[in-house]
Amino acid sequence: MKDISFGQVYPVESPIHRLDARAKLIITITYIVTIFFVDTFVVYGVVAVALLGVILLSRVPLRKVLSSVKVIFFLVVFTFVFTLLFNRGMGPEAEEAAYGYYIEFGPFVICGSGLINAGRLACRLFLLVLGPSLLTFTTTPMDLTAAIEHLLSPLKLLRLPIHELAMMMSLTLRLIPTIMEETEKIMNAQKARGACFDHGNIFKRAAALLPVLIPMFICSLKRAYELADAIDSRCYHGAKGRTKMKVMKYRVPDILAYLFSAALLFAVLVFAYNWWGWSWVAEFAVI
Fold it and tell me: Is the domain of 98 the same as that of 221?
């Protein structure tokens, strides 16, 4: 549970930390869109190298960033195995001709195209979690709230409560680590009373979690009521009449960061769709 990265900020001085929160949020969205266009291992490698460079610039330890992937490790492995065993590819003859092997046993099949597709999905899930986790490591919840509110400000014309929505998202990010800590305390208390959470099949483990879920749910409701009372006691009534202590302004590094993300997206699109008839690019990226 300590590996949950959402809401946790790694407080160091770095060029990535100093970037405008709006720029980091838009670049993260662009990064996610870019990942969905990638369909070759070569381009996945290019994106991974670019992401590694950003992580080194942020001065966040690589081990801490990679720890965020532990949360979805089971999902990555399950997706890889499921895709590998149930992807029948191009058929026995075509797979034998293209990859040299086609193993079929019962409903399961292991073939070259299935292995490639499973690897691509695993790389996509890995990079999709790794990139956005860097946003929460380098941006405080308050800055992220201000960025979301600023970017969604045109929706105020439709009378949508943008400020309140941004505040709710900020509180959610901030309270995730707190809830995880309370859950860990409850589990330790249950273990001291003889509870066991890591033995038996999946159904027995799920049943053993019931004494944890009920007190965790009660603690979450209690914290929500306390937070609501604290907000009311400070006369909080939304965005009306409120001013900002820090005015968000774009600087030269923010513009350079935008250009870098746009160049990365452009390069991925060139590889993916073979723009301008660059056949040698498509041949190089077919892996």
Answer: no
| Number of domains comprising the chain | 2
pLDDT tens string 43-61: 888 889 989 999 999 998 8
**What SS3 class is residue 235?**
coil
Q: Which pTM does this prediction carry? A: 0.74
DSSP state of 139: S
Does residue 149 contact residue 166 with C-beta atoms inside 8 Å? yes
Q: Is residue 26 located within the same domain as residue 113?
A: yes
Nearest-angstrom CA–CA distance, 10 and 286: 38
Residue 123 sits in the same domain as residue 254: yes
Q: Is 69 exposed, middle or buried (0-12, 13-18, 19+ CB in 10 A)?
A: middle
Does residue 223 belong to any structural domain of this protein?
yes
pLDDT tens-digit readout, 89-98: 677 777 666 6
Q: Give the end-to-end CA distance of the chain in Å, rounded to a whole number.
A: 37
What is the domain range of residue 8?
1-139+250-287
CA dist 27 and 151 (Å) reads 13
